[in-house]
Amino acid sequence: MEEARLFEMLYRYGVVPVIVVESPDLAIPLADALIAGGLPVAEITFRTAAAAEVIATLRKERPEMIVGAGTILTLEHLRLAKECGAQFGVSPGLNPEIVEEARRLNLPFIPGILTPSEIERALGLGAKVLKFFPAEESGGPAMIQALAGPYRHTGVKFMPTGGINLHNLESYLKLDIVLMVGGTWLARKETIAAQEWETIQANCREARAIVAQIRGDK
Ligand code: 3PG
Questions:
Q1: DSSP per-residue codes, 114-165
Q2: Are 160 and 135 in contact (CB under 8 A)?
Q3: Predicted pLDDT at 30
Q4: Which of 72, 133, 168 to mutate to test the pocket of ligand 1 (most atoms within 8 A of CB)?
Q5: Which tens digits make up the pLDDT trace of 6-25?
Q6: Which of the 8 DSSP states describes residue 131?
Q7: pLDDT for 34
Q8: What is the pLDDT of residues 117-129, one digit of tens each?
Q9: CA 115 to chain centre
Q10: pLDDT-based confidence at 37, cuts 50/70/90?
Q11: Smallest CA separation from ligand 1 atom 6, residue
Q12: Distance between CA atoms of 5 and 3, rounded to whole angstroms?
């Protein structure tokens, strides 16, 4: 999928569930809960050994979903994510080597930033969407708004992540510089492990309702 189209779809969903899944066997029921909740999108983090297999399974079995790879800390994981069919990559920090390799692999990549210098470095590397992490702990919506001031004209957009939930989601989505938010609250590791699919479905539905209310249901 073209980068512009991908970001357009992520904007439309407004929220990206950040997933920590321990077993590939849980990939399909998890995906079905997200889809049923109206959020056919997931960032599968490379914090577990199951990540690559989960991404490959979802790409094959649930092609209607957008599947990204998160917590990309090494070139090895980046290449593996691409091989498994990940449609985008995310990292908590800004590693120029990884951003450059993602570009070479033609994989849309969202590096993490927290300061003006990091934003400038990321823009210089060609990144267009940046993960603002950890969002709540670093000053939340007011901080992103202030931080984005000198860079707004570049067209840069942000994916705040860290400490976001149903109660503060709205305050982030209201910012025009926010493309989408990320978070584990929709499908927590423990909830996935306990296979509480209805809880995940309900969380997604509630989040989608807030997105629709703020951005209109497109
Ligand atoms: C991430 O990897 O993006 C964060 O762990 C997500 O933060 P959260 O758990 O507070 O949503």
A1: -SHHHHHHHHHTT--EEEETTTGGGTHHHHHHHHHGGGGGGT-EEEEBSS--
A2: yes
A3: 98
A4: 133
A5: 999 999 999 999 999 999 99
A6: E
A7: 98
A8: 999 999 999 999 9
A9: 19
A10: very high
A11: 162
A12: 5
Neighbours of 77 (CB within 10 A): 21
**Contact (CB, 8 A) for 173 and 14:** yes
Q: Which helix (H) or strand (E) holds 140?
A: helix 140-148
CB 46 within 8 A of CB 73: yes
6's torsion region: left (phi>0), alpha (psi -120 to 50) or beta? alpha
- The neighbour count for residue 85, using CB atoms within 10 Å, is 16
CA of 72 to the centre of ligand 1 (A): 14
Peptide bond preceding 134: is omega within 30 degrees of 0, i.e. cis? yes
Distance CA 57, CA 26 (A): 10
Which residue do the tokens 């969903």 mark?
13
Q: What atom in ligand 1 is closest to the CA of residue 165?
A: 11
Could you give the dihedral angle defined by the CA atoms of residues 155, 204, 188 and 171, in that order, rounded to the nearest 10 degrees? 50
Residue 185 DSSP code: T
Residues contacting ligand 1 via CB (< 6 Å): 18, 92, 133, 161-164, 182-185
* Residue whose CA lies nearest to ligand 1 atom number 3: 161
- DSSP letter assigned to residue 178: B
> Is 186 in contact with 17 (CB distance < 8 Å)?
yes
